[in-house]
From TrEMBL:
GO terms for cellular component: Golgi apparatus; membrane. It holds the Pfam family DUF1751. InterPro entries: Rhomboid-like_sf (IPR035952), TMEM115/Pdh1/Rbl19 (IPR013861). It is a multi-pass membrane protein. One of its GO terms (biological process) is retrograde vesicle-mediated transport, Golgi to endoplasmic reticulum. This is Peptidase S54 rhomboid domain-containing protein. Keywords: Membrane, Transmembrane, Transmembrane helix. The keyword Membrane applies. The chain crosses the membrane at residues 21-42, 77-96, 108-130, 136-156, 177-195. It is found in: Membrane.
Length: 367
């Protein structure tokens, strides 16, 4: 009861924070947040969960319930998952959508969720073929936005790979190591029973699928596809010690995908271009869209800083104006008191005495 009272007292503050987070966002972001809230309300019905979530055995033939791949993502059964989903989608509207555009962001959202549904089903199908336990096909219900949360972490890693999140005694935590670290945390929580087994599976699927899309298939405004930067390679997700091992495992798979035309080969080239300011050199691993993305991020940060500075200046000017008005009003109610006139000190005057007793001319005596 005490926790409920604390939560009820903080409802106005939480409402204010959510309104600030979702303010000035696109209708698609608001639609996703509203649908997630509605899905949480519907999740109290067990029948609704069975119908709207992805069940691996029913997604396969003969049932072939493909429509569940479009409904499972907004179904959350825990309140903390709803809050995390809304915060993540709101941050996407603030950070990713201005760079990609609304259409590209929704495309990324749809492709990631559909891919997570099929890849997770394939994962449980492999477990069933190994254990012959039918519970992995018909008792498992895949739902929620865990896969999309992982995809957002990968997109943030691509946009701001070296952004410092926190300093720890073991080292610095940046966006570069965030997807793998959260996957390990999800596996740990599943091992102690705090999460369903579908959560780490969906997180790993979302991480892999989003990286494939952003690495090879995403189309940019200049006509190019993917992001072949060195800091966005798959081995870059792992610690430096494990990167050679991961590179040795991934390289044969990459070559097979290139041979079958599923992805393109990483270009290794140096461009020299003359410009009025001199010679422009593009080194290997530095893609033009990566440079443009960083330039847009820098411009956005600069505009936000300038807007904050102008707002502070405006508030200071307003405060000064209010203070001056207050002083004027105060002075208008005070009766002015002028200093009294100084006393006039008269200098001693001369007294004139006239002798009128004699006929002689008057004699003047001065005293």
């Amino acid at each position: 009861m005490a926790a409920l009272r604390v939560f009820s007292r903080n409802i106005p503050y939480l409402r204010q924070q959510f309104s600030a987070l979702l303010g000035n966002t696109s209708p698609s972001v608001k639609f996703i947040c509203v649908v997630v809230v509605i899905g949480y309300v519907l999740s109290f019905s067990r029948d609704v969960v069975n119908v709207l979530s992805v069940t691996p055995g029913y997604l396969l033939p003969p049932s072939f319930q493909l429509w569940s791949t479009f409904t499972f993502w907004f179904l959350e059964i825990h309140l903390w998952e709803v809050i995390i989903d809304i915060i993540t989608v709101g941050l996407c509207g603030k950070l990713i959508e201005p760079l990609w555009g609304q259409i590209e962001m929704m495309k990324f959202f749809v492709l990631t969720n559909i891919g997570v549904a099929f890849l997770t089903t394939f994962y449980y199908l492999m477990i069933f073929s190994w254990t012959q336990e039918t519970s992995y096909l018909f008792d498992i219900h895949v739902h929620g936005l865990a896969g999309y949360l992982a995809a957002v972490c990968v997109a943030v890693k691509q946009i701001l790979p070296d952004h410092l999140l926190i300093k720890t005694p073991l080292g610095k935590l940046t966006n570069r190591s965030l997807p793998l670290l959260l996957l390990l945390v999800a596996i740990l929580f599943w091992a102690v029973g705090a999460l369903e087994g579908t959560y780490p599976c969906m997180w790993g699927s979302g991480t892999l699928l989003s990286w494939i899309y952003l690495r090879f298939w995403q189309k940019h405004s200049n006509g190019s596809r993917g992001d072949m930067a060195e800091n966005f390679s798959f081995d870059n997700f792992f610690p430096t010690v494990l990167q050679p091992l991961v590179r040795g495992v991934i390289s044969p798979i990459h070559r097979c995908c290139i041979r079958f035309g599923l992805c393109s080969q990483s270009p290794r080239r140096v461009h020299l271009a003359l410009s009025p300011r001199g010679v422009t050199i593009s080194m290997p691993g530095v893609e033009p869209q990566d440079m443009e993305r960083r330039r847009q991020i820098a411009l956005k940060a600069l505009s936000e800083r300038l807007s904050k500075t102008s707002e502070i200046t405006r508030q200071k000017n307003l405060s000064t104006k209010v203070n001056m008005d207050t002083v004027r009003k105060t002075q208008s109610h005070v009766i002015p008191q002028f200093p009294s006139e100084p006393e006039i000190i008269q200098a001693p005057t001369e007294a004139t005495l006239i002798d009128i007793s004699s006929e002689n001319p008057p004699t003047t005596k001065t005293s």
